[in-house]
Protein: Granzyme M
Amino acid sequence: GFTDLLSLAVGWAPPPLAARSRLYIIGGHEAKPHSRPYMVSVQSKGVHVCGGALLNSRWVLTAAHCIPQGMTVVVGLHRLREHRGTQSFSIRNACPHPDYNEDTLENDLLLLQLEGKVKSNKKHRPIALMRREPALGTACSLAGWGGRWGRLVDALQELEVTVLDARMCNNSRFWDGGLAPTMICFQGRGRGEAPTKGDSGGPLVCGRPPRVAGVMSFSGPDPTDRLKPPVATSAVKAPGGVGPRGGHRSAHPKAWRRDWGT
Structure:
């Protein structure tokens, strides 16, 4: 059952599609240090694997395909090699979305319960979830530590993106029916700008004040291919939701229906 799955979750190896779907940023720029205090680094044995978003003092949202062995979360990073002022946590519980499909990457969401509480300050601050799906043309952004050819960059990079029409993304010239209703497709605002292999799990952030609309999930083999735009999993449309008004209460673990208060 799902309870047994949760007990084994921290020891999971990433599913086969993870190599295809880990994303990083092409054409972005270095973020202002600690301007995204909700960003976390999900690490395996001290090495960055995926990004994530701090939802409150004990919980982080990332992608379900990001579960590594020996997992820790580091809060307050700007440069991966500079740990001064950061906080590191082991994982008490790793809770993949109950409807996560590792073959299609539908509902590619993972909640991590930290072993301990994050001390909030200007470098460590949670971010809220959006209440509605971002509309066509919405300006959003993302960030990560990935680099070209699977290498990591030291400083956090960021990229401005625009939400695309879901029906267009799913037509025969684009993803050809491969996108589920719980997925958001988008593109970099500049030509040749895109996330690609290296750093998924980070939040797609939209609106003012900034809120999490989704979690970075996958892209095509050529990340700059305009016919295979990158895809995030919606944190709004996921069955059961991530916030306090999620449905299917009898089937979902407490983590998927809790009130995200600090």
In short: The helical segments are 2-9, 18-21, 166-169.
